[in-house]
């Protein structure tokens, strides 16, 4: 049962930080504490869409996670890697040596006891990113890392560079269902900090900045859209980061991202092709997944504690 929902059977409301709760006075037993007033109707409380505050959504979310990934929530490790590509899952299994693969109705997962890490190949795009990060809340992960690819927008970027996003522009249609439009999409800082440490320890470099997340595929020939990108001064562009950050924040799932620059779409001849995509996979993706595995397998022992605020 998610935190904050244990009192539902007693007719009480969760301590979500929004509903007024009467606190125990000095000397008053803790079990005497209750709501200051009768709970508002579900539609009026404003938090019932949050999976951790809705027992029925939590129950069905557990079923969704098991059905889509082939893995029950309890079988996931507390450190999870998310990817768009089957090759990453295969490399994970080769590195782990003890991985157990599960096939769901829409996604594939693999789990290594030796590494203490699970990986999910969830496919591509904002809607499915929102789905997986929300239902992952029922597995109670301590750290989640998205290993995605992006188009490099800044003139200094080259194919094969790593981008550690500090924020993402929410130019997609999924995150609006979870957070108001004025709320920025931010990764979990302590995950980003630890990933940066792993990259540096390997003698590699990375770039930080804002990533533009869009659900507009094949935008490369839209001059108006490209002009907007120049005005924003975004470092890179992808299709999932803002969604993962926003829905992860709304669902209390710690989430970071390390992106690999796979193409340079604002340059002449820079749009990704089948052959250029193959070249990127041959040269750079093994290092990408190795960094992700190392970060998630060590963050529990070496990383800083990640604290959840209560809303």
Q: What is the overall silhouette?
A: globular
Average pLDDT taken over every residue? 86
List the uncertain runs.
1-46
Query: What is the strand tally?
Result: 9
Record the strand order, biggest sheet.
Answer: 5-8-7-6-9
* SSE string: HHEHEEEHEEHEHEHEHH
In short:
Helices cover 33% and strands 19% of the residues.
Word description of this protein:
The chain has nine helices and nine strands. By secondary structure, the protein is an alpha/beta fold. A five-stranded mixed β-barrel has the order 5-8-7-6-9, surrounded by four helices. The longest helix has 18 residues, at 285-302. Helix 4 (126-135) packs parallel to helix 7 (241-251). It has helices at residues 42-45, 55-69, 86-96, 126-135, 189-201, 223-232, 241-251, 274-283, 285-302, and strands at residues 79-83, 100-103, 108-112, 117-121, 143-152, 162-171, 207-214, 236-238, 255-263.
Secondary-structure blueprint of this entry?
Blueprint: H1 42-45, H2 55-69, E1 79-83, H3 86-96, E2 100-103, E3 108-112, E4 117-121, H4 126-135, E5 143-152, E6 162-171, H5 189-201, E7 207-214, H6 223-232, E8 236-238, H7 241-251, E9 255-263, H8 274-283, H9 285-302
Parallel strand pairs: 1-4, 1-5, 5-9, 6-7, 7-8
Antiparallel strand pairs: 2-3, 3-4, 5-8, 6-9
Q: What keyword list fits this structure?
A:
311 residues, alpha/beta, five-stranded mixed barrel, disordered N terminus
